[in-house]
Amino acid sequence: MKHPSVFSLGLKKVLAGQRFVHRNVDAGDRVCLVGFNRLFLILNFSFLIFNSASAQNPLVKMWDKRFGGTDHDALQCIEQTNDGGFILGGNSSSNAGGDKTQGTWGNGDIWLVKLDSLGNKEWDKNFGGTNGDRIYSLQQTSDGGYILGGWSGSGISGDKTQDTVGGTDFWIIKIDSLGNKLWDKDFGGTKEDLLYCVRQTNDGGYLLGGWSTSMISGDKTQNTWGGWDYWLVKTDSIGNKQWDKDLGGFSTDELFTFYQTADEGYILAGTSHSGISGDKSQNLKGGYDYWIVKIDSVGNKQWDKDFGGPDNEWLNSVQVLANGEFLFGGTSYSNIGGNKTQNNWGVKDFWLIKTDSQGNLQWDKDLGGSEGEEISRIFQTNDGGSLLSGDSYSQISGDKTENNLGQEQTWIIKIDSAGAKVWDKTIFTLGHDEYGLAIQLRDGCYLAGNQTYDDIGGYKTQASWGGYDYWIVKLCELPTLNISTQGSIFCTGTCTDFLNLSLNATSYQWSFPFATPDTSTATNPTNICYANPGSYDVQLIATNANGSDTLLLTNYITVYPQPQPQSITQSGDTLFAIAGAGFYQWYFNAAIISGATDYFYVAQASGDYNVVATDANGCEVEAAIFNVIANTLLTVDRGLWTIFPNPVDDKFTIHNAGFTMGTAVEISIYNVIGEMVLAVSPHAIGEGSGGEADVSKLTPGLYYIELTADNKILRSKFVKQ
Questions:
Q1: 463: Cβ contacts below 8 Å, ≥ 6 apart
Q2: What is the mean pLDDT of residues 361-389?
Q3: Whether the Cβ atoms of residue 249 and residue 301 lie closer than 8 Å to each other
Q4: Listed residue (541, 532, 553, 551) closest to 488, CA to CA
Q5: Can you tell me the distance from the alpha carbon of 588 to that of 662, in angstroms, rounded to the nearest whole number?
Q6: CB 174 within 8 A of CB 153
Q7: Cis amide prior to 645 (ω within 30 degrees)
Q8: How far apart are CA 261 and CA 280, in angstroms?
């Protein structure tokens, strides 16, 4: 599916050591940069602070696959394998049939499916005993095989070689790369023990983590503090127990996941209903909170932290970042309060917290729609961001940009390293999906999966075998394109360089109609020149291995005509440019003359002069005059003399002109393009005055006034209203 493209375009102003005039750009404003011959247009495939269209998600489906038997098959784990394929793990009630080659031993078994890189099944395996057995954790191990972790209610039977100690126990299974069982181990106390995470440790052994209600008994060497506690079991490389630890408070504490840290310790992530008690050093913020515990390599607690809002939070995922900091993800029912700085969009949202290596909060983010969202997993991406996956009941609202096709759908979100959303994607099926998962693959694409009973529809191309099936879909990013409403406007003769910041593209085809050159395959085209005024399109086709996307910016480039040529003439001590431009700036020997912004300038010294005239479009033209000899016979003075009133209605009077009493003064008035529009005959004036003039017949606007007498000229401006 190809999604509509949008494209962000901003403007980078680069000064090439020349004089320039510009104005500030407000949102939605248009900009003109002039007076230099190189303008850099930044084609920025990201979000801008200008008026930018909302970014659409950039994912396109490559393929999808369904795996199941004739009963319920519930996907719990997705991992990419060392050979570029995938392994799927979950729980199955199906006997042989469909994609399943083995029947169950009892009331639900563990079912694995190994796939190649295109999603084709290579083998499947069923593991269980005569009672109920579940998998919640799966990891490829250093020998190319796999460690499976979950819980079991079975005694010795089927694939299980050890009896349970209590009602349910931790159960781990080690298999080789082809799915053949090497060994299995059962750990528990006399009550309920539920394993949710197993990982190979740096010493080649394994750490198992979950919840326990057992007191000292069986494999458990410590009592619980309350109802459920975190329980950890450390084994060697062949599953022999080395130590175990119970961590909790006086109420319910449920461990879902953990990671080994650089100091050989572990960061534990779960949910707590306990106040300060037992191993818990901080009070609750609400009903259930995130509870994070840092332990050393032998299970001793180093610190713990509680994070939450005024309602309930359920933490089930953690990532250890490259700098030793942590990102935690779960589901929140809370509005602002406690550690939560944003309200929910709906009943429940994804909630992320970022901490430093000591568990101190750096930021938190709420992401959701108007109904309800539950997070299943966070996964670090190749660019330092993260991929969030879970389930959503929401239509377009809040952070969600696509409507569900069915009821509950898998929802994935890409965020950057600061927690800002990059894009989001709804995985479409016709019905109800559970436990949405997503990972980034080594080729930069993404694999999303869930458990679904839906038939063909949306992204799903195969019907269900029966009940829930495993379903996966591979999605890849097309080049990412956004668009800003800010235009690109400059003057005839300007050449431009395009700086391309597009994402996920490997080749480019540019088109610049009526420019020289008019095409380019460069990543960053340079020296694209426009010789004639007009409005011109820019087109970019960006391509990668997954396809291409096209951006057409209609009338994006606006080129204004070159202003009329300028010239400078000298009359006595005064230099005159051609009147009528919007703005003037004079220079003496290449240095700017402060305040010299009229179309005329009195030459105070001998040397070279030039003027830059700017028209209404902001385009500039320059003229120069060399070897000026300053003439002191006439003096143009703008001194302290005034016109009153100013603005003028009908008549004005000149004050403080400084002429001798009885001097005949000639008054001349010019419009802004230098045409004389009124001349007042010379007449004698009073001491210090310059006379008066009737301007009632002039149209409203700006005018220049010139007084001539006593071998000097006085010039100024006034406004006729």
A1: 66, 455, 456
A2: 96
A3: no
A4: 553
A5: 38
A6: no
A7: yes
A8: 21
How far is 651 from 36, CA to CA, in rounded Å? Answer: 45
Largest distance between two CA atoms of the chain: 128
Amino acid at 580: G
State both tokens at 292. Answer: 């994070």
Q: Which tens digits make up the pLDDT trace of 335-348?
A: 999 999 999 999 99
For 394-457, strand residue ranges (E) read 409-415, 421-427, 433-440, 446-452
Residue 65 to residues 115, 117, 450, Cα–Cα distance (Å)? 10, 12, 11
Q: Which of 271, 273, 309, 276 minimizes the C-alpha distance to 290? A: 271
Q: Name the token pair of 650.
A: 């009908």
Q: Which ranges of 305-462 does DSSP label H, i.e. alpha helix?
A: none
pLDDT digits (tens, 9 = 90+) for 235-282: 999 999 999 999 999 999 999 999 999 999 999 999 999 999 999 999
Q: Specify the amino acid at residue 166.
A: G
The amino acid occupying position 198 is V
**DSSP for residue 3:** P
Chain-centroid distance of CA 88 in Å reads 31
Instruction: Mention every residue, 6+ apart, whose C-beta is less than 8 A from residue 454.
Output: 406, 429, 430, 431, 432, 433, 460, 464, 471
> ∠62-67-71 over CA atoms, to 5°?
150
Which of 10, 45, 63, 44 has its CA nearest to residue 448?
Answer: 63
For residue 446, give both structure tokens: 């993404």
Q: What token pair was written down for 528?
A: 């694209």
Could you give phi then psi for residue 77, rounded to 5 degrees?
A: -140, 140
| E strand segments, 265-356 | 266-272, 289-295, 301-307, 313-320, 326-332, 349-355
Higher pLDDT, 503 or 1: 503
**Separation CA 182–CA 281 (nearest Å):** 42
The answer to whether the CB of 532 falls within 8 A of the CB of 514 is yes
DSSP 346-370: SSBEEEEEEE-TT--EEEEEEE--S
Alpha helices in 133-290 (DSSP H): none
Q: Which residues contact 515 (CB under 8 A, 6 or more apart)?
A: 528, 529, 530, 536, 557
The reported pLDDT for the residue numbered 685 is 55
pLDDT number for residue 680:
78
pTM: predicted TM-score of the whole model, two decimal places = 0.67
Measure the CA–CA gap between 402 and 396, rounded to whole angstroms: 5
Distance (Å, whole) CA 94 – CA 228: 31
Give the neighbor-by-neighbor strand order of the sheet with 642-644. Answer: 642-644, 651-655, 692-694
Per-residue tokens: 691 = 């006379």
Q: Which residues pair with 666 in a beta bridge?
A: 708
Distance CA 132, CA 137 (A): 16
Backbone angles phi, psi at 678, to 5 degrees: -160, 135
